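Hi team,

As requested, here is the filled-out complex form for the magnesium ion run. I kept the field names the same as last time so the parser does not choke. Let me know if anything looks off before we queue the next batch.

— J.
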Amino acid sequence: MKGYSITTLNEFIIKRQTDFPYAKGELSRLLSHFGIAAKIVNKKINKAGLVDILGASGIINVQGEDQKKLDVFADETFIAAIQASGEVCGIVTEENQEIITFDDNLSRDGKYIFLMDPLDGSSNIDVNVSIGTIFSIYRRVSQRGHSARAEDFLQEGTRMVAAGYIIYGSSTMLVYTTGKGVNGFTLDPSIGEFCLSHPDIRTPEFGSIYSVNEGHYLKFPDGVKKYIKYCQELDPETSRPYTSRYIGSLVADFHRNLLKGGIFIYPSTASSPKGKLRLAYECNPIAFIAEQAGGKASDGFNRILDLKPDSLHQRSPFYVGSRAMVEHLEELMG
Ligand code: AHM
Ligand code: MG
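And here is what came back:
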């Protein structure tokens, strides 16, 4: 048919399987299941203002934050889809203190583990601002045929097999990497398919956007304060002052900066020395995508992907985005 050049997510996943000579289709199946759950969650999010799903569910999640009903729905939907793939032996999510092991025979033999923040930026749900889902996949290190163990989830980010996010924005997009570049798919609601819209995303080396919650400025480390002042200085040669943009949804802030060039900053503060964002299922997957697109991610001193998590919900300061901007901030931190 003339003009027909759509590549759907599933077609793309299958095509890309041949990038991995020994692939048996397990990761492809897992990603396809995830894609289906993404559509279900997207549908629910789109209807959030219409049905009685908004507001606190009365449960406090493991981070001590109010959990909203949509968080619960997203968490349960993704977990069910991941288990149904049969490729995963266990999952860790922001909403659950402990590892969830999938103990049916098929899953126990699964070679992957899954980590996820099912609904990131949830404080934005009630006010119709973009939110996201973040995920990452590792090969288990424990023996197949048994339940998943903590060591499976505490691997360095460098061992990640795949990572991605969904942004529920003015359109819904799924962006992911399997370590061979980054590709973005936009959900076409008329056909209900994620279609390849942003092939091989590369992030600009320099950018002119900085994204930080400046309300906490006084509590930031000196290096971060210096960097923010640098962003605000007048210098026509480097197009400063830079533009400040902060949505308060990591996925949305990162996604904009990925495409336009910029830096996302969530530092340690005097009261939260480890920052806010969780290393295993927020920082690491975003860092993997950033690097795969030519960007950089750091905790101020170390490459994020080199950090070895020592607990499931560990937090880390997080600086991510255009390579030159992150490097400059690191210099000032030093
Ligand atoms: P959440 O996972 O509970 O939604 O929290 C994470 C969010 C990130 O999306 C965002 O970058 C950050 O918290 C915003 O925090 P703050 O309100 O302190 O600026
Ligand atoms: Mg989050």
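Two things worth flagging: The pocket of magnesium ion (ligand 2) is lined by residues 94, 117, 120, 282 (CB under 6 Å). Residues 26-46 form the longest helix (21 residues).

Thanks,
J.
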